[in-house]
């Protein structure tokens, strides 16, 4: 009996580690070229040429308070490659795959490398938002649904007014299916050129982690009808005076407005706590073998 219990326990423990794949940015289309992403499953073993996409050690999620929230585990350090891109043009971040049930918002941020991205630590970044999508209550679709429908890719536009220089561009998927929100960031190094002179205003810049400290996340399985994306509003640079239209800090940190829906901030979908079925199967098989 002890053996059976031990097998069950060990098998239950092994079921705690993530078993499914998520996805990673496997290519970036920028400046009219397609650049390969960092493949966490093959690149560590093949010593590829430097890539514009910063390393990720795996395709797992990052916690909201993790120091690696900016650019995933392994992405704090720079890479020797950078992509040239004109301000005003589009960047497409193509994920290898995204699981349908990992629903939530998708957003793109940028941060100046204050010079050379190759030596810039992502943790020192002051990030501004290019775009973000959350939940569309008319279609009942999350941004991740749209990303999946769009060949697992997300396109963002580099603001035409943005001052030239080296920047990190950070695409982030947030999955809300679990007890805690799961963050899946990816960073690429880009060299923006153009005649723009605008820098984001101080109140449009956020630190990561820190960005999500006051965020309230909905229970996506519960009764909610809308979701306000946490963080600042996207930059607009509409005043053309070397900066963007000031964004009110209160508007930037507005919590989700569920308009009559679920206002609770706690998660009400518990993870199954019983051991998985293969444990029962294993023990049954063992009993049968013993009784023979
Ligand atoms: C979709 O993405 C794959 C790579 O993931 C690419 O080969 C293919 O051309 C893309 N399809 C379209 C329509 O962009
Ligand atoms: C960035 O682009 C500018 C042209 O806009 C170029 O002069 C510079 O060499 C580029 N920097 C890198 C590191 O590629
Ligand atoms: C969901 O919320 C709306 C608005 O408060 C309410 O009318 C409706 O009965 C709720 N539905 C469920 C299943 O709780
Ligand atoms: Cu997962």
TrEMBL record:
Residue spans of biased composition, Low complexity class: 244-254
GO CC annotation, single: extracellular region
Cofactor annotation: Cu(2+)
Signal peptide: 1-21
UniProt domain Auxiliary Activity family 9 catalytic: residue ranges: 22-215
GO biological process, one term: cellulose catabolic process
Localisation: Secreted
Protein family according to the UniProt entry: Belongs to the polysaccharide monooxygenase AA9 family.
Full protein name: lytic cellulose monooxygenase (C4-dehydrogenating)
Species of the source: Collybia nuda
